[in-house]
Each structure stands twice: as C-alpha cells, then as structure tokens.
Amino acid sequence: MSLLQSVQLALQPYRQAKAWYLALSGGLDSSVLLHILAQLRKAEPLPPLTAIHVHHGLQKVADDWPAHCTQFCAALQVPLRLRSVRINQQSNLEEAARRARYEVFEQFLGPEDVLLTAQHQGDQAETLLFRLLRGAGVRGLAAMPRVRPLGQGRLVRPLISIERAQLEAYALKEGLTWVEDPTNQRLDFSRNYLRHFVLPELQRRWPKVQLSLARTAEHMAEAQGLLDELALQDLAGVRSKPEALAWLPLPSLALKPLADLSEARQRNLLRYWLAPWTTLPDAAHWAGWIGVRDAASDRQPFWRLAQGDVLRAEGHIWWLPHAWKKFSAAGLSSIKDLTEVQLLDNGVLQVQGFAGDTNVRIGYRQGGERLKYSVQGSFELKRLLNQSGIPAFVRPRLPLMFQGEEVVAVANLWAPAGCNLRWQPPGLS
C-alpha cells in the first residue's frame, strides 16, 4: 500500500468532519502530510483544509519558518493561519512549547472539527521509551493514541503507523523542501537522546524495534481501555451526592463503597475520575489518598493535586479546583437592590420575596450567628448547617441574609414563607 493510500484509509472515518486543520511546523513530517492531503483533495471531495503554524520565538532561525510555511501553503493553495506565542523561560521548554501550541490549536477547533498532526511510528517508539524510563503506568505506556478529544473537536494522527523512511522517500520523490529545527540535534533533550543514540543502537540489534514498540503501545492502549471500562463499572457504585447538596456543582464520590474496593481498583477509579480536571499523581504521591481515606471521621483531610484538592467531608470525597480558593468574604456588604446579586468569585444569588425590605444585607458566616425563624424565636445557625450536612469547605461561602445582626435566610436551606434565597455556586470552570 502506498503512503497516499495509507493516509487516505486512516482518514476515512473523519471524512464527514466540518473542517480539517493541519498542525504545520514546516518540518519534513507535517510538510509531507500537507502535500498528501493537497493531492487527495484533487481526486475526491474532502472537508475544508487549513494549515496552522505556531511560532514560538525561542530561536533566531525559527523566524524564517513562517515565511517558508506561507510559500509552501500558497503553492498548494491551502489557507494558512499564523500564530505567535510567548513561552516563559522554564526548565522544561519542550513541554511549555507543546502546551502553548495545543492551546492555539484548541482555539480553532469547533464541534466536529479535526486537527491533523504528523507524528509517525518513530515518534511513537520514542514516546513509549521516554515514558517507560520515567516509570509510567499503563495509560502512559499507551503513548500517543491515533485519535483523542481536543477542545471541542478531535486530534487525529494519520501517520502514526508510518515509518519516517517512507516520509523521506515521498518528500524526495516529490521534490519537497522543509525546515530543519537545530534543537533536534541537541542530546541534552531527552527525546533527541533517544532518537539519535538509543534507538539506533536498538535497531542495530533488533531491526524492527520501532514496529515492536509501536505494537506494545497499541497493546497498552487496549489494556487501558479495559481499565477504563472497569472504572466506569466501579464508578456507577460510588458516584453519588447527598440529596440536600444537589445544588452544589462539585463532583463527589461516596467514600464507603469506594474504600471497600481493592486498593488497585481504588487507584484505577480515582485516576479515571480525576483525569478531566487535573494532572494525575505519580506513584509516590498516592500516600495523600490513603491519608484522606483512612482519616478519623471527625477530621477534614485533603489531598493536594496539581490543579486542585480532593477533600473528605460528610461521608464523601469532593473535587475542589484551585479556583475555589480565590473566594474572600471581605468584598460583600449591604446591597439595596435585591433581585439578582453577582457575588465576587462566588457565583450568583437570586433573591425573591425580599424586594420591599431595605433593612437587610447579604453577608457570610463569621461564627456564632443565630437564625431567626419567628418573631421571638431563633437558634444557632451551626445547628441548621449540621442538620443539613453542609461540608465545612462550603460553609464560609454560603450566602446569608441578615437583618441587623440576625440571620433571616440561608441560601438554598431556609427562608421565611413567601421568600427564597437561591444560590448558584461556582462550578469547575
């Protein structure tokens, strides 16, 4: 099968996409892929095709690459979008540049759009080796999937089973020109060390090593799929939220059925559950989960992760993104127009039935407040919060309506007859 036919077959499932975008670096791989797509569309109708070149500005020679990409796309009559990004100097420039590129790509992708990238079989082998040497688990050793979600669309790698030698042969046959990134020769970059030193040595002993490593990645991807299926089954038995807290838009799991699973299934479930919101912890960091799980019932432990915390409260574990820590009760004072109040870093408060009462204000709990439930009666606010099972991390930001020093309404929990105080707290965004 020719290279053209291989790409045509790999892209068959995505022919109904609204648009195809191609990540064009100007290097050999992406240049060959763009040229192939330009040839395919001459023979058959394809989705609208646009190339995207992201300029990182990390090296002087790269300043010429946008012009090269512009000329290359013009010759193929393919629209090109140029974007520049600024990379903060840090220890891992490769990873920072990669994140910046994909943030740009996500901005282009709408629903049913596809981003095509040009990673090939050699890249897959490097990725597997790199992650293996870092002690990755099954998910990491699955390396780069052929297709995965990206933004509102999908990322597809149609060359992932193709050897680089095939791409070179195609480029020479078609007389293509491309740019060479000088950093690809730097052996202080781990991937380059694997590419130029480790893999050639392995190939001298095992000529089909790249194919074998790529197959291993496929086996790992299949195994990860089975682990995800198991996680979904386990999740069905532990995904719950106290009925009184149905209004709280934070993910939670019931602790007891989760803790009854084997430790391996606990970790598998939590990896799956946490994956949409945070970088997953390495093996050494799982002690934080044990601390949350096994803490005494009167404790309020938390497990700190990269983008948020896992907290234990009211017989459940909760995911709290770091955005929840931005809240401050200091910014709220007396409010006269009580209909809908935009709370600072704390969602929206809808007020009904209090419009005629100007002697009220919205505030937050400081401690020791009493809830007025009749002309002569009141009781400690803490009693209502305990009875309602409000987690400790929610209580400081629960909006209250005060009349004088007494609380007359508690958002989502209690208000006088004919009145309502509805709070829509911030979620995960």
Structural topology:
Layout (H helix, E strand, L loop, with lengths): L2 H8 L8 E5 L4 H16 L5 E7 L9 H12 L3 E5 L8 H16 L4 E4 L4 H13 L4 H4 L5 E4 L2 E4 L7 H11 L15 H16 L3 H30 L13 E3 H5 L3 H12 L12 H8 L7 E3 L3 E6 L2 E6 L18 E3 L5 E5 L8 E3 L6 E3 L5 E3 H8 L11 E4 L2 E5 L9 E5 L5
Parallel strand pairs: 1-2, 1-4, 2-3, 4-6
Antiparallel strand pairs: 5-6, 7-10, 8-9, 9-10, 11-12, 12-18, 13-16, 14-15, 16-17
Number of domains: 3
Helix content: 25-40%
Give the C-level CATH assignment of the largest domain. Alpha Beta
Largest sheet: 6 strands, mixed
Strand-pairing-aware structural class: alpha+beta
Name the CATH architecture of the largest domain. Answer: 3-Layer(aba) Sandwich
User: What is the approximate shape?
Assistant: elongated
- Given as residue ranges, the uncertain stretches (5+ residues, pLDDT < 50) are none
Through-space gap between termini: 46 Å
Q: Number of helix segments?
A: 13
Q: Strand-residue fraction?
A: 15-25%
Output the radius of gyration. Answer: 28 Å
How many beta strands in the DSSP annotation? 18
Q: Mean pLDDT across all residues, rounded?
A: 88
CATH superfamily of the largest domain: HUPs
